[in-house]
Backbone:
């Protein structure tokens, strides 16, 4: 075996071992409940894992809903442990949560599309947000979602045709201001768009995001894709603010 290959395999083995042991030796609180001293797997304690496993996909709709918003499905309210996990993943650098959160999204996608081939798209971070978070958080989740669905024998494609344009922080904006900010908030990448168009043929197109609040972002992203020739059939999120309950 060439020395370079041997070194690469040894490095991969060491990385895998570290990943398997790190939850046992790193002193970290659970990302969901904040308790310390508990055994963790992918940043989550057993109690939080059980609560997450009990979530079931359900329809959700902002009131009022923006024009053109596709069918929307979510897993839970943006509250409690689910909220803490999302904040830990997005804002506190606990990136190993991508695996359990991606698995949750996969369950929701499977509920929306029980059998047909699926094309997963996602609402992208702006360049500034991706730098601050050390990567596009929804891109990682969409890849994890696809991997989980493929493990279950599903035909799944992943594409990245959307690009987010710079925008103001929406957390302090009203519903009307969010809708205005979302308009023109996206563009498409020509190379990725062509691949998405091809993959969309014969597939159900699902747009992923972490949270739905007013629906303005999902509606604007879906409209940008539709104008470019890719129709979104459904939107799936991990959480919904209480105002969006169906």
Residues:
């Amino acid at each position: 075996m060439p020395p370079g290959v041997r070194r690469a395999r040894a490095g991969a083995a060491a990385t895998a071992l570290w990943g398997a042991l790190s939850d046992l030796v790193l002193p970290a609180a659970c990302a969901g409940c904040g308790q310390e001293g508990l055994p963790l797997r992918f940043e989550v304690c057993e109690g939080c894992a059980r609560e997450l496993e009990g979530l079931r996909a359900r329809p959700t709709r902002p009131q009022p809903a923006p024009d053109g918003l596709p069918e929307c499905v979510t897993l839970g309210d943006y509250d409690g442990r689910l909220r803490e996990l999302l904040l830990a993943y997005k804002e506190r650098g606990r990136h190993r949560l991508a695996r359990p959160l991606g698995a949750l999204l996969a369950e929701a996608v499977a509920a929306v599309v029980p059998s047909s081939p699926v094309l997963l798209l996602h609402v992208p971070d702006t360049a500034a947000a991706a730098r601050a978070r050390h990567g596009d958080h929804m891109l990682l989740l969409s890849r994890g979602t696809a991997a989980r669905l493929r493990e279950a024998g599903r035909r799944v494609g992943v594409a990245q045709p959307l690009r987010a344009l710079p925008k103001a922080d929406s957390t302090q904006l009203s519903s009307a201001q969010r809708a205005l900010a979302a308009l023109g908030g996206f563009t498409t990448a020509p190379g990725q768009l062509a691949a998405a168009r091809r993959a969309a043929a014969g597939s159900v197109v699902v747009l992923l995001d972490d949270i739905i609040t007013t629906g303005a972002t999902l509606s604007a992203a879906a409209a940008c894709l539709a104008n470019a020739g890719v129709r979104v059939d459904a939107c799936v999120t991990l959480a919904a603010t209480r105002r969006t309950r169906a």
